[in-house]
Design brief:
BirA Bifunctional Protein, domain 2; 432 residues; binds magnesium ion; elongated; aminoacyl-tRNA ligase activity; binds ligand 9VF; 32% helix; seven-stranded mixed sheet; binds adenosine-5'-triphosphate
């Protein structure tokens, strides 16, 4: 028995098309991509369908049952008869028809429901210190605006059903994805019906995206990188851009042996290389090389993508952006490190607390926290590993995740909002 013919083959053989309402059309021409077929009918309609053997379109074409013939297509009797008689099929082949499954009806996902995320809370404008620069002024301004608008629009007659019943799980997911902050409480029983609320939020998000397009046109992650570079350069740090693909050997030289957790998180390529999980190895090499060239103290930094296999969702990305700044030589004290971190986070307008911690790479670390979120691990060297990198001077350094900084700044529930993504632009859901 042969497999069912593809939709593409059916279209080619039949030379006619059955609309959803079982109206028979002539096919003037059709285009095929790897996933879709676009049919141009003789009457001038253009229909795009999935190029699937199992689709409803494929099934109707195999069944040859039509309700009426399109008058505008002016189909000849011969074309219609050929379709009905199926005399183009190879009589030696029995085609398999898909058994009709009596399972639960397939859930039809509305646009964007599949990639829904979690609700966010409002940006941390209130705690922004005076010296702060704005990472993404639009996002903050828009959020504030939205809060006041939505307050007005929810002053409706109370609805008797409880909020839990009000939205189905998929409707809730869709609404959560559309929220940029906690501008709307989805448990509020006075909310309008789903369709109305969804339409209102979609139009706000569209307006915000258009506003970005007309005004700043800056991506919040890229803008943050630029702001951090400008800050560190102004503080005397030299900017580095090194390879993202690094020798796997560097991981081992960082003391991360095969049986260590971080080693299992490394994305390896098949030529003894890997995607860097951190910036430190190459920065070590720079300290060694520039240490021979530049005056003391030496200040260097790099900002760029890092990769780790992760399983925990809302604060971890597999592809994230790290800034690592470090100083070698004079003045490498804990006090100076903390002072630098304070100036850095004050400049970015992000509140923090300092905690002591331990890590397997450096031993004792100075962890920078925003609530429960680790923004950075910072270290006061020297450490024994320095020997393996040809470093014999004291150093201080800190590594911050940029997406975590955005999460803290805008109070995003999920780190994905500010990450490299096709689903979010500056925290705004893009599937509108
Ligand atoms: P965590 O314990 O939260 O997994 P970590 O201690 O493994 O983080 P470090 O190696 O100290 O992370 O990296 C320095 C900084 O880089 C972290 O403080 C964090 O801001 C950021 N970072 C690390 N891993 C990730 C990740 N998977 N996604 C986003 N940011 C990350
Ligand atoms: C602290 C975070 C080893 C002297 C070239 C710079 C640091 C930063 C730790 C980072 C890591 N270390 N993700 O080192 O600044 O390396 O684990 Si240097
Ligand atoms: Mg850490």
């Amino acid at each position: 028995m042969a497999d069912r013919p593809t939709l593409e083959r059916l279209v080619k053989l039949n030379d006619v098309w059955l609309s959803r309402k079982d109206v028979l059309h002539g096919i003037k021409k059709y285009d095929v991509s790897s996933r879709k077929i676009r049919i141009h009918t003789d009457c001038g309609e253009v229909i795009t369908v999935n190029n699937s053997r199992r689709s409803a379109s494929a099934r109707s074409l195999r069944n040859s049952k039509y309700r009426k013939v399109c008058k505008l297509c002016k189909l000849s009797d011969e074309r219609i008869n050929r379709f009905v008689a199926k005399d183009f099929y190879d009589p030696g082949i029995t085609y398999v028809e898909a058994p009709v499954k009596k399972s639960a009806p397939k859930k039809v996902l509305k646009k964007g429901m599949a990639e829904a995320s979690t609700v966010q809370t409002a940006p941390v404008a209130a705690e922004t210190p005076q010296k702060a620069v704005s990472i993404a002024p639009q996002a903050a301004a828009q959020t504030t605006q939205t809060v006041s608008q939505s307050t007005q629009s929810t002053s409706k007659e109370p609805v008797s059903v409880s909020a839990k019943e009000k939205f189905s799980p998929s409707q809730r997911k869709r609404l959560e994805a559309l929220l940029i902050s906690d501008e709307i409480n989805l448990d509020d029983p006075n909310l309008p019906p789903f369709e109305e609320l969804e339409a209102e939020m979609v139009s706000k998000r569209k307006a915000e995206l258009v506003d970005i397009y007309e005004n700043s046109r800056e991506h919040m992650l890229a803008k943050l990188e630029r702001d951090i570079s400008a800050f560190l350069i102004s503080k005397g740090f030299i900017e580095i851009k090194s390879s993202i693909l690094i020798p796997e050997e560097y991981i081992i030289r960082m003391g991360i042996d095969k049986d260590v957790e971080l080693s299992k998180q490394v994305f390896r390529t098949d030529d003894g290389k890997c995607l860097r999980p951190m910036l430190a190895p190459v920065l070590y090499n720079y300290l060694h090389r520039f240490g021979k060239v530049m005056p003391d103290p030496l200040r260097i930094f790099e900002i760029g993508p890092c990769y780790r296999k992760e399983s925990d969702g809302s604060s971890h990305l597999e592809e994230f952006t790290m800034v690592n700044f470090c100083q070698m030589g004079e003045g490498c004290t804990r006090e100076n490190l903390v002072q630098l971190i304070d100036e850095f986070l004050t400049y970015l307008g992000i509140s923090y607390e300092i905690e002591g911690d331990e890590c397997m790479v450096y031993g004792a670390t100075v962890d920078v926290m925003h609530g429960d979120l680790e923004l950075s691990s910072a270290v006061v060297g020297p450490v024994p590993m320095d020997m393996d990198w040809g470093i014999d001077k004291p150093w201080i350094g800190a590594g911050f995740g940029l997406e975590r900084l955005l999460k803290a700044k805008y109070n995003f529930k999920n780190i994905k909002r500010g990450s490299r993504s096709e689903f979010y632009y500056n925290g705004i859901y893009t599937n509108l």
